[in-house]
Design a protein that fits this description.
alpha/beta; 8-stranded parallel sheet; 8 strands
């Protein structure tokens, strides 16, 4: 299990930096070795935060970051997979991180205006130069993954995956297994919804991005609460939290599936990691499939403009 760091600088309201650093250090102390960030988080400030947090501890982690959800040079260009942009973006990420290499470098969103072969070709140059160790894509289609992998081997593909986002099971995960590529599951707790802590949209602060997320709005929120209540009931029977059960379900999908739940609180890191010890029976898995079957979550997982950039 890794740690998603986006919420420490972006999307979910303001967080005091020292608290974020304490959370990162707690994760490292408990054995977490994969940290995930991106240049767009902040923008830019999340990479800087990780750079400060990892002073003296760089060798303990595999550091993953991303480029190209949008151009940080030209805000009107989103996404940006131009080879010349790739080569500039990595240098800027390294500078912000204060590091000489990135362990896992993702294209954050596939650029429909640039053939994936050209983008990954540029990324492969970063491996040859030693700036990057391994390559990945985020929210890419099965076809794009195959084309990219033919240019340079991909080590991981990252997409949203949880009990309420299961569309990756149809084509993407089978493709990854066919090619021997790992799968990194972001938002394995449904952006916090699957923890059961939200009782209404008003629980979100005014500056929380989730207020614009269709799944957190109106009738969708009410219907999704019903899904969470079903999961929560199973969790209570097992004497665990809903979050732990939701994470254990993702972990049960296979050893090639690595969830990266995000949090800004050290005690939540400890709670999440306890899911590693939770063994789900065949009956547990059957009941969870019944509680959250694929395709039943109400609402899209992003607003329309952002949805258009998925499965690229």
């Amino acid at each position: 299990m890794g740690l998603g760091c986006m919420g420490m600088s972006f999307g979910y309201g303001s967080v005091e930096e020292q608290q974020s650093i304490t959370t990162i250090h707690k994760a490292l102390d408990l054995g977490v070795t994969l940290l995930d960030t991106a240049d767009i988080y902040g923008p830019e400030t999340n990479e800087q935060l990780l750079g400060r947090a990892l002073v003296g501890r760089r060798d303990e982690v595999q550091l993953a970051t991303k480029f190209g959800a949008r151009s940080l040079e030209d805000p009107d260009r989103a996404p940006d997979g131009r080879p010349e942009y790739v080569l500039r973006a990595v240098d800027r990420s390294l500078l912000r991180l204060g590091m000489d290499h990135i362990d896992l470098y993702y294209q954050h969103r596939v650029d429909p205006q640039v053939p994936i072969e050209e983008t990954v070709g540029a990324m492969a140059q970063l491996v040859s130069s030693g700036k990057v160790r391994f390559l990945g894509l985020s929210e890419a289609s099965a076809e794009t993954i195959r084309r990219a992998h033919a240019v340079h081997p991909l080590s991981a593909v990252q997409s949203e995956y949880s009990l309420w986002t299961r569309d990756m099971e149809v084509e993407v995960i089978p493709t990854l297994r066919d090619l021997g590529i790992g799968f990194v599951a972001y938002s394995p707790l449904g952006r916090g919804f699957l923890t059961g802590r939200f009782t209404s949209p008003d629980d979100l602060t005014e500056d929380d991005w989730r207020r614009s997320n269709p799944r957190f709005q109106g009738e969708n929120f009410t219907r999704n609460r019903e899904l969470v209540n079903r999961v929560r009931a199973i969790a209570e029977e097992k004497g665990v939290t809903a979050a732990q059960l939701a994470l254990a379900w993702v972990l049960s999908r296979g050893e090639d599936v690595v969830p990266i739940p995000g949090t800004t609180k050290p005690h939540r890191v400890e709670e999440n990691l306890a899911a590693l010890a939770l063994c789900l029976t065949d009956d547990d898995l059957r009941r969870l499939d019944e509680a959250a079957p694929r395709g039943t979550t109400a609402g899209d997982r992003y607003p329309a403009a952002m949805m258009s950039l998925l499965n690229g």
